[in-house]
Write a structure and sequence with these properties.
The protein is an alpha+beta fold. 25% of the residues lie in helices and 28% in strands. This is Molybdopterin molybdenumtransferase.
């Protein structure tokens, strides 16, 4: 590209969009890349502060910002997402379905360390809805070396930076535990909370039983639920270290693989997650899920709905950001809670 005085630009081709900003009125391009400048355009260009402009000079060693932005988009895109129109070297990725956004943090960091380009996204492992903005890409200068873009492409040669895993319909089972509920001493206020949270997703509760603090009965209940077709089993209560709290033992005795009993999250430290036969989650939910606005259950549930298996290492990473501040006005997930993994 070549810098020239605006008054001398008649007949030249713009190599970038020219944006006009009027507070409270507009922020948009008055001229687009590729526009051939006319005599009538000169006063308009001067009115938006362009005493000098860049015009396009063909050079096979460089790429225009829009061409380079397309390369960044290709490095990011995956199934179930589409691009916005390219504008001023920027392309955004938009979700095509409800699902779980996954981000390859190492690749993202490498691209953003290259210089002269950027990709900004939502946090990974967060739920999104169809139409939500997932990420934005941009080239910083108006032009960039072609060989630099070729080098950065190699970072994503094996797989793109982003993945959007669609949510799947689940057949859920709720196992309510506790002598106090089983014998009618108190009302079961836990199950309605679980039903409400499951209702945020495409779920059908096909099994619900209440048991006293008998670990064998709870074990048998979990297995009966799976036999009935449940692909998600949720056990409520009985998760502390009191003598009558038998849920962790009951889940273990199903033969499920215990991924973790305990998580660095408040509320939710006594949470248990396991997988029966490798693919059916059996969860043990502590009492805080019944009364706290947001807990470990809210962090894990989207991953379960997307069939995205949770690991012990990932749970350990939740310590940073794992403290819910219990704000009077809850704005989750648009806050820092649970952004550690």
């Amino acid at each position: 590209m070549k810098l020239i005085k605006t008054e001398d630009a008649v007949g030249q081709v713009l190599c970038h969009d020219i944006t006009q900003i009027i507070k409270g009125v507009t922020k948009d391009a008055v001229f687009r890349k590729g526009h051939i400048i006319t005599e009538e355009d000169i006063p308009v260009l001067l009115s938006v502060g362009k005493d000098h402009i860049y015009i396009w000079e063909k050079d096979d060693t460089i790429l225009h910002e829009n061409e380079a932005a397309q390369i960044l988009y290709e490095m990011c895109k995956n199934d179930h997402m589409h691009p916005s129109d390219v504008k001023e070297g920027k392309i955004e990725l938009i979700a095509d379905c409800n699902g779980l956004l996954k981000v390859d943090k190492e690749k993202l960091k490498k691209v953003n360390s290259f210089g002269e380009m950027m990709i900004a996204s939502r946090h990974g492992n967060t739920p999104v809805k169809a139409g939500d903005k997932l990420a934005g890409t941009r080239i910083i200068p108006l032009v960039i070396k072609k060989d630099k873009m070729e080098r950065v492409k190699a970072i994503c040669a094996d797989a793109p930076i982003f993945t959007l895993k669609p949510f799947h319909k689940k057949k859920a089972a709720i196992i309510t535990t506790g002598n106090e509920v089983y014998h009618g001493r108190i009302e079961d206020t836990f199950t309605p909370v679980i039903r409400e949270k499951l209702a945020e997703y495409d779920t059908e509760v096909i099994f619900h039983e209440t048991f006293d603090d008998d670990n064998q009965k709870i074990t048998d209940g979990c297995l009966a639920a799976i036999e009935a077709g449940a692909d998600l089993v949720i056990c409520t209560g009985g998760m502390s270290v009191d003598p009558d709290d038998k849920t962790p033992l009951a889940i273990k005795n199903t033969g499920a693989e215990i991924i973790s009993y305990g998580a660095p999250v408040l509320p939710g430290a006594m949470f248990l997650i396991s997988y029966y036969n490798g693919n059916v989650p059996i969860l043990g939910l502590p009492g805080c899920v019944m009364y706290a606005k947001r807990t470990i259950f809210d962090l894990v549930l989207p991953r379960i709905m997307a069939d995205d298996k949770v690991t012990a290492e990932e749970l350990a990473a939740l310590g940073e950001g794992g403290l819910c501040l219990n704000c009077d006005h809850c704005i989750y997930p648009n806050c820092g809670f649970g952004k550690g993994w």
